[in-house]
Amino acid sequence: MSLIEEIRAKAARWGFDTSGHAAHRALLRHVSISDIHEAIASGEIIEDYPDDKYGPSCLISGTIEAGRRLHVVCTHPSRAVLKIITVYEPDPEEWINARYRRG
């Protein structure tokens, strides 16, 4: 099973938790838990951070209702509970499109 398939499987069972940072950012950005779930279900991994100092994580780009794009940074599914680290809409100043960074 691929990494995104493992993440989707955990998320489908609502086997994820949000960090305090992610919960705060989601609230400020009007992103619901259902939106996070939908972004993971529709998304693809666009960046992988296997050597992150806090543990392996990755960046998922997904589309939710009405075509809204979301980026979700989460831990790898090797953890007992998938942790959502942050969630945001990609900024056009930083992203060419939802998949590729500028610069």
Written overview of the protein:
- This protein has 103 residues and is α+β, with helices and mostly antiparallel strands.
- Helix content is 28%, strand content 29%.
- The chain has helices spanning 3-12, 20-28, 33-42; strands spanning 16-18, 44-49, 57-63, 69-75, 82-88.
- The protein is globular, with a radius of gyration of 13 Å.
Q: Could you give a quick summary of the protein structure above?
A:
The chain has 103 residues and is of the alpha+beta class.
Radius of gyration: 13 Å
Order of helices and strands: HEHHEEEE
Q: How do the strands line up in the largest sheet?
A: 1-5-4-3-2
Low-confidence stretches: none
SSE blueprint and pairings:
Blueprint lengths: L2 H10 L3 E3 L1 H9 L4 H10 L1 E6 L7 E7 L5 E7 L6 E7 L15
Parallel strand pairs: 1-5
Antiparallel strand pairs: 2-3, 3-4, 4-5
